[in-house]
Amino acid sequence: MNSGNSDIHRVAIISPGDMGHAMGSVLLENGLEVIACLEGRSDRTRRLSVQAGIREVASCEELVSEADLVLSILVPAAALDAARFVANALRATGRSPYFADCNAVAPETVKSIGNVITGAGGRFIDASIIGFPPAKDVTTRLYVSGPHAGIMSVLDGKGMDVVPIGDAIGQASGIKMCYAALTKGTFALHYAVATAAKKMELFDALCREFEHSQAEAYKLMQRHLPRLPAKTFRWIGEMQQIADTFEQVGVTPNMHRGAAEMFRRISQCSLANETPETTDAKRTLAETIDAIVKSK
């Protein structure tokens, strides 16, 4: 990775939500300045940003004027609009910071985002986040690709392992699509199986069989499914992006279109109104599936 990272002193986060504020926090702890424009953001995002110690700026123009590197961390559906918003600010200010799209989007989508940024004078990096938000004893992996990817080495060792994967835009996003296809796609399958069994009044019998012959998978279901409903609305678009990615390379998109539909249904149940702070840590798998079934 190149040595141009010595020019990176101030990082902007769009937007400091669950992942963004955690990344901002570890960067601050490791000596970088971190800023965010919170115009139009939710009260929760504002609170998380303040808790992390991220400095607020008044406008996107001010953000790109101050930032050396902009990290875009949003739900997939908002990624292209965010890039357009930043591009307008780049044109207005004449600035050309590095812009890393860290969102869970298809390679073709990230290429479109890159065209928006470079067309406005920015320097674009394809990036993808693998793992949980960085925290004490938790290191997030950040895959990067593209001609400017070397600049991201400034983040390596600061709560993140930066992994260069190639010179082409789309490579970092592609590995995220394949990874999330397995991890979150499996969560969708687990929800679908448990919900179907519940509706057929076979849930308890199925769980006993899982304990007998699929013990590890059952442990994962018990550990993860009760705390994920509040996140599923964010994953609908991600599954759609995975489906698009697979279709573009001649692999069936239908599994992940189904996963998107499963997450859409879960996002409509009462548990989806929780936040990570209010999720009931003691809720069981059975109680979770009951709530999903009753919402239909």
Helices and strands in order, then pairings?
Elements: E1 10-14, H1 18-29, E2 33-37, H2 43-52, E3 55-57, H3 60-66, E4 69-72, H4 76-93, E5 98-101, H5 107-119, E6 123-130, E7 140-145, E8 160-166, H6 171-199, H7 203-213, H8 215-224, H9 232-248, H10 254-266, H11 285-294
Parallel strand pairs: 1-2, 1-4, 2-3, 4-5, 5-6, 7-8
Antiparallel strand pairs: 6-7
Helix pairs in contact: 1-2, 3-4, 4-5, 6-9, 6-10, 6-11, 7-8, 9-10
What would you say this structure looks like, in words?
The protein has 296 residues and is of the alpha/beta class. It has 2 domains: 3-169, NAD(P)-binding Rossmann-like Domain (Rossmann fold, 3-Layer(aba) Sandwich); 176-294, N-(1-d-carboxylethyl)-l-norvaline Dehydrogenase, domain 2 (Orthogonal Bundle), CATH 1.10.1040.10. The protein is built from 11 helices and 8 strands. Strands 3-2-1-4-5-6-7-8 form an 8-stranded mixed sheet, with helices on both faces. Strand 2, helix 2 (43-52) and strand 3 form a beta-alpha-beta unit. Helix 1 runs parallel beside helix 2, helix 6 (171-199) packs across helix 10 (254-266) and helix 9 (232-248) runs antiparallel to helix 10.
